[in-house]
Amino acid sequence: MISIIFLDCDGILTTGTYLYDDSGKQYKEFSSVDSNGINEALEGGLTVEVISSDPTGGDINEARCNDMGIPYHRAVEQSKDVVASRRLEELGEKWGSVAMMGDDVTDLEVLKQAQVPVTVPNAVEEVKQIVRERDGYVTNRQGGRGAVAEAIRYILSEQY
Protein backbone atom coordinates (compact mmCIF):
# COMPACT_ATOMS: atom_id res chain seq x y z
CA MET A 1 0.00 0.00 0.00
CA ILE A 2 1.30 3.45 -0.90
CA SER A 3 1.92 5.65 2.11
CA ILE A 4 4.47 8.13 0.74
CA ILE A 5 4.67 10.11 -2.47
CA PHE A 6 7.97 11.63 -3.53
CA LEU A 7 7.72 14.43 -6.07
CA ASP A 8 10.32 16.08 -8.23
CA CYS A 9 9.74 19.82 -8.41
CA ASP A 10 10.71 21.35 -11.76
CA GLY A 11 8.68 19.83 -14.56
CA ILE A 12 6.33 18.16 -12.07
CA LEU A 13 5.09 20.80 -9.62
CA THR A 14 6.18 23.53 -12.05
CA THR A 15 6.15 23.80 -15.82
CA GLY A 16 9.93 23.43 -15.72
CA THR A 17 10.39 26.92 -17.13
CA TYR A 18 12.63 29.37 -15.30
CA LEU A 19 11.66 33.02 -15.68
CA TYR A 20 13.95 35.91 -14.77
CA ASP A 21 13.26 39.60 -14.40
CA ASP A 22 15.71 42.37 -15.38
CA SER A 23 17.44 42.18 -12.01
CA GLY A 24 18.07 38.43 -12.35
CA LYS A 25 15.40 37.36 -9.86
CA GLN A 26 14.03 33.89 -10.70
CA TYR A 27 10.35 33.00 -10.88
CA LYS A 28 8.53 29.69 -11.29
CA GLU A 29 4.90 28.83 -11.95
CA PHE A 30 3.05 26.38 -9.68
CA SER A 31 -0.55 25.15 -10.03
CA SER A 32 -3.23 25.65 -7.39
CA VAL A 33 -4.86 22.47 -8.71
CA ASP A 34 -1.78 20.53 -7.55
CA SER A 35 -2.06 22.13 -4.12
CA ASN A 36 -5.60 20.81 -3.86
CA GLY A 37 -4.41 17.34 -4.86
CA ILE A 38 -1.65 17.43 -2.26
CA ASN A 39 -4.21 18.42 0.38
CA GLU A 40 -6.32 15.41 -0.66
CA ALA A 41 -3.29 13.14 -0.26
CA LEU A 42 -2.47 14.55 3.17
CA GLU A 43 -6.10 14.25 4.27
CA GLY A 44 -6.03 10.65 3.00
CA GLY A 45 -3.12 9.89 5.33
CA LEU A 46 -0.35 9.94 2.71
CA THR A 47 3.01 11.58 3.26
CA VAL A 48 4.03 13.89 0.40
CA GLU A 49 7.61 15.15 0.08
CA VAL A 50 9.54 16.97 -2.64
CA ILE A 51 13.07 16.00 -3.64
CA SER A 52 14.70 18.43 -6.06
CA SER A 53 18.12 18.52 -7.67
CA ASP A 54 17.71 22.15 -8.80
CA PRO A 55 20.81 24.02 -7.59
CA THR A 56 19.45 27.51 -8.29
CA GLY A 57 15.74 27.67 -7.48
CA GLY A 58 15.71 25.91 -4.15
CA ASP A 59 14.49 28.91 -2.19
CA ILE A 60 11.42 29.27 -4.42
CA ASN A 61 10.76 25.53 -4.26
CA GLU A 62 11.17 25.43 -0.50
CA ALA A 63 8.87 28.44 -0.02
CA ARG A 64 6.16 26.80 -2.10
CA CYS A 65 6.51 23.52 -0.21
CA ASN A 66 6.27 25.41 3.07
CA ASP A 67 3.07 27.06 1.78
CA MET A 68 1.65 23.61 1.03
CA GLY A 69 2.84 22.15 4.35
CA ILE A 70 5.10 19.48 2.86
CA PRO A 71 8.82 18.81 3.35
CA TYR A 72 11.35 19.92 0.74
CA HIS A 73 14.67 18.14 0.28
CA ARG A 74 17.57 19.32 -1.86
CA ALA A 75 19.44 16.58 -3.70
CA VAL A 76 22.31 18.63 -5.06
CA GLU A 77 25.29 16.98 -3.40
CA GLN A 78 23.62 13.55 -3.18
CA SER A 79 21.47 11.76 -5.73
CA LYS A 80 17.71 11.66 -5.29
CA ASP A 81 17.73 7.94 -4.57
CA VAL A 82 20.18 8.50 -1.68
CA VAL A 83 17.96 11.27 -0.27
CA ALA A 84 14.82 9.14 -0.75
CA SER A 85 16.43 6.11 0.90
CA ARG A 86 17.47 8.22 3.89
CA ARG A 87 13.94 9.60 4.22
CA LEU A 88 12.43 6.12 4.02
CA GLU A 89 14.72 4.96 6.78
CA GLU A 90 13.83 8.00 8.91
CA LEU A 91 10.11 7.37 8.32
CA GLY A 92 10.37 3.62 8.89
CA GLU A 93 9.06 2.97 5.37
CA LYS A 94 10.10 0.61 2.55
CA TRP A 95 10.27 1.13 -1.22
CA GLY A 96 7.08 -0.92 -1.59
CA SER A 97 5.13 1.92 -0.02
CA VAL A 98 6.46 4.61 -2.38
CA ALA A 99 5.00 6.39 -5.37
CA MET A 100 7.47 8.64 -7.20
CA MET A 101 6.66 11.30 -9.75
CA GLY A 102 9.50 12.59 -11.91
CA ASP A 103 10.24 13.73 -15.44
CA ASP A 104 13.99 13.75 -16.05
CA VAL A 105 17.08 11.54 -15.82
CA THR A 106 17.80 12.67 -12.24
CA ASP A 107 14.58 10.87 -11.26
CA LEU A 108 15.32 7.53 -12.92
CA GLU A 109 16.81 5.66 -9.95
CA VAL A 110 13.94 6.59 -7.62
CA LEU A 111 11.37 5.74 -10.32
CA LYS A 112 13.01 2.32 -10.75
CA GLN A 113 12.66 1.56 -7.02
CA ALA A 114 9.22 3.04 -6.35
CA GLN A 115 6.21 0.74 -6.20
CA VAL A 116 4.26 3.20 -8.37
CA PRO A 117 6.34 5.25 -10.83
CA VAL A 118 4.53 8.25 -12.32
CA THR A 119 5.48 10.80 -14.95
CA VAL A 120 4.09 13.50 -17.24
CA PRO A 121 3.58 13.32 -21.00
CA ASN A 122 6.44 15.76 -21.68
CA ALA A 123 8.99 13.77 -19.64
CA VAL A 124 12.22 12.65 -21.28
CA GLU A 125 11.89 9.36 -23.16
CA GLU A 126 14.02 7.36 -20.69
CA VAL A 127 11.62 8.26 -17.89
CA LYS A 128 8.50 7.43 -19.87
CA GLN A 129 10.04 4.11 -20.89
CA ILE A 130 10.79 3.12 -17.28
CA VAL A 131 7.32 4.16 -16.13
CA ARG A 132 5.64 2.15 -18.90
CA GLU A 133 7.88 -0.91 -18.37
CA ARG A 134 6.99 -0.91 -14.68
CA ASP A 135 3.24 -0.50 -15.33
CA GLY A 136 3.28 2.98 -13.82
CA TYR A 137 1.13 5.95 -14.73
CA VAL A 138 1.67 8.71 -17.29
CA THR A 139 -0.62 11.65 -16.57
CA ASN A 140 -2.68 13.40 -19.21
CA ARG A 141 -1.80 16.78 -17.73
CA GLN A 142 1.56 18.48 -18.10
CA GLY A 143 3.82 19.33 -15.16
CA GLY A 144 2.79 22.55 -13.45
CA ARG A 145 -0.68 22.21 -14.94
CA GLY A 146 -2.39 19.84 -12.50
CA ALA A 147 -0.40 16.65 -13.20
CA VAL A 148 0.37 16.12 -9.51
CA ALA A 149 -3.29 16.35 -8.55
CA GLU A 150 -4.19 13.93 -11.36
CA ALA A 151 -1.54 11.45 -10.19
CA ILE A 152 -2.62 11.69 -6.56
CA ARG A 153 -6.25 11.13 -7.46
CA TYR A 154 -5.20 8.13 -9.54
CA ILE A 155 -3.20 6.67 -6.64
CA LEU A 156 -6.04 7.26 -4.18
CA SER A 157 -8.67 5.79 -6.54
CA GLU A 158 -6.59 2.71 -7.34
CA GLN A 159 -6.04 2.19 -3.59
CA TYR A 160 -2.40 1.26 -3.97
Automatic annotation (TrEMBL):
Keyword Metal-binding among record annotations: yes
EC number: 3.1.3.45
Protein name (database record): 3-deoxy-D-manno-octulosonate 8-phosphate phosphatase KdsC
Catalytic activity: 3-deoxy-alpha-D-manno-2-octulosonate-8-phosphate + H2O = 3-deoxy-alpha-D-manno-oct-2-ulosonate + phosphate
Protein source organism: Halorientalis persicus
Single GO molecular function: metal ion binding
InterPro entries registered for this protein in UniProt: CMP-NeuNAc_synthase, HAD-like_sf, HAD_sf, KdsC_fam
Xref: Gene3D superfamilies: HAD superfamily/HAD-like
Keyword tags: Hydrolase, Lipopolysaccharide biosynthesis, Magnesium, Metal-binding
